[in-house]
Amino acid sequence: MTTVLVVDDEPQLLRALRINLRARGYDVQAAATGTDALKLAAAHPPDIVVLDLGLPDMDGTEVVAGLRGWTDVPILVLSGRTDSGDKVDALDAGADDYVTKPFGMDELLARMRAMVRRSTGKEEQPIVSFGPNVVDLAARRVTRDDQDVRLTPTEWHLLEVLVRNPGKLMSQKQLLLEVWGPGYETARGNLRLYMGQLRRKLEVDPARPEHLINEPGMGYRFEP
Known about the structure:
Helix content is 41%, strand content 21%. The chain is α/β, with parallel strands linked by helices. The model has no long low-confidence stretch (mean pLDDT 90).
């Protein structure tokens, strides 16, 4: 049974989530504060965390950072805030994905299932296929319709980071640090340029990408 830790200070929402998740076979733990959430997670490590950013005793990003100090448990952030900056901060702190309030239960459950699948199937997949493309991570080679695709070292590094995190929303800051290193955290023009180049080489229709997806103001995700 998958154990989920739900952290939210809204009693009605907490109750609704507990009922819906238990009805679908989840073992549910619940906390209304960040302090209680961190204590509960340490005492009974969950398989996934569903975390509201607006908590009474601390910001949700502090809870994310606290969890990331010792666990890589999948963290799904709930946010009623309209400012994408708060969600980006949560992603940069180590959250894996987010859902904006109000949300549909079907959407929440689908995100949770995808995150649990990724966390339980972490063995490295050296060959990743999407569309007409095949990425060989071990050989550092990309083919499209069985023809080699020439990528620059930066294009390869960016593609590799995304492909190794399928379905995960990567913030712009995360990608810039991974690919370009410290000092480039605000060089978003670089990211747009190289994502455009990758799409032209790998997407069937670069103007309507199906695999290298942009979430405006947030970041990018790779969808196989």
